[in-house]
Design brief:
Elements lengths: L2 H22 L14 H13 L8 H10 L1 E5 L4 E3 L7 E7 L2 E6 L6 E7 L4 E2 L1 H5 L7 E4 L3 E7 H25 L8 H10 L1 E6 L2 E3 L7 E14 L2 E6 L4 E2 L1 H6 L6 E14 H4 L3 H21 L5 H4 L4
Antiparallel strand pairs: 1-8, 2-7, 3-6, 3-8, 4-5, 4-7, 9-14, 10-14, 11-12, 11-13, 11-14
Helix pairs in contact: 2-3, 3-5, 5-6
């Protein structure tokens, strides 16, 4: 796919998302529904939301609004909860029971099982998030107790938080050389996955440990040490940890925060399908790291035989 086509695809996807969100984005007129539930039920719902990646952008107040808005449903075994191809109007949390994901082939009408979901699981969110038809059917395998969240509340609370988070991090992502070949759509996906962390005069990553995350500095400074020697310093917009991210090797250095250092963390599992566009920059970084180590007469076994 050409670069122009990739950006056209990105613009189309983003414009659809923004257009649909705009229909619901009137906070002065919106009031989330409140459905009765016990304190124990509310805590279980909250716990499920906090474990779900989709809700990681929602603040404490928003989570509480969502918990109140979930509505209870009793479903009997064999019931089709979601029908493939339908428009999405709800997402669901499983209180108890098991359901199966079934997808019908467009070529031969064969139905394939995509897996199952049980207590604590969440499903149906993708159709709401991306304004797309249901990608598969969900059928209750046993009697189930479900909680549903309506589309309007989802758009006001969850989408609003996601868009705010994207705006906050997009400028940072554009400034990082490692990511400047990604199209806007892919940058949005990365922004959704970022986790903000704060370190004060402490190690952010440690030499020799297993690395699965890339870090980008939003505020403050940090310094990299290899075998106790200073090899590199980082300021706002700097990033580190990318070699271990793609090569899955032990960390080549220790990076320590100087005073207060605010970083965002990107885990490998969140960007594994985007690693290709990053490889050229990583190769250049690896060459630079090796030159610095050579100038300091440092031999690092974690980098010596590494090829990207």
């Amino acid at each position: 796919m050409s670069e122009a086509a990739r950006f056209a695809r990105a613009r189309n996807r983003l414009s659809i998302s923004a257009e649909v969100f705009g229909q619901f984005n009137d906070p002065d007129r919106f009031e989330a529904p409140i459905h009765g539930k016990t304190g124990e039920q509310a805590e279980r719902i909250k716990d499920s939301l906090l474990k779900c990646f989709l809700f990681s952008s929602v603040d404490h107040k928003g989570i509480n609004i969502l918990v109140g808005a979930f509505e209870a449903h009793d479903v009997t075994a064999g019931t089709t909860i979601i029908q493939q191809g339908d428009a999405g109007d709800k997402l669901y949390l499983v209180e108890s029971g098991t359901a199966e994901f079934l997808k019908k082939s467009e070529l031969d009408d064969k139905v394939m099982s995509l897996g199952k979901i049980s207590e604590g699981g969440c499903f149906g969110e993708l159709a709401l998030m991306y304004n797309a038809p249901r990608a598969c059917s969900v059928v209750a395998e046993t009697d189930m107790k479900l909680w549903s969240l309506d589309r309007s509340t989802f758009n006001h609370i969850v989408r609003a938080a996601v868009i705010k988070k994207r705006e906050k991090y997009d400028k940072l992502l554009q400034s990082v050389a490692l990511l400047n070949k990604l199209d806007p759509y892919d940058r949005c996906r990365l922004a959704d996955a970022l986790k903000e962390r704060t370190f004060v005069d402490e190690d952010i990553i440690v030499e020799g440990t297993t690395g699965t995350s890339l870090f980008m500095i939003m505020e403050g400074k940090a310094h990299a040490y290899c075998q106790g020697k200073l090899v590199k310093s980082y300021a706002e917009g700097g990033y580190f940890g990318e070699i271990a991210l793609i090569a899955q090797t032990p960390r080549a250095s220790t990076v320590k925060a100087e005073g207060k250092c605010v970083v965002v963390e990107l885990e490998r599992e969140s960007c594994v399908n985007l690693l290709g566009p990053m490889e050229e920059c990583m190769r250049n970084n690896l060459e630079e790291y090796n030159r610095v180590l050579e100038s300091l007469n440092i031999e690092n076994k974690n980098l010596a035989s590494l090829k990207i």
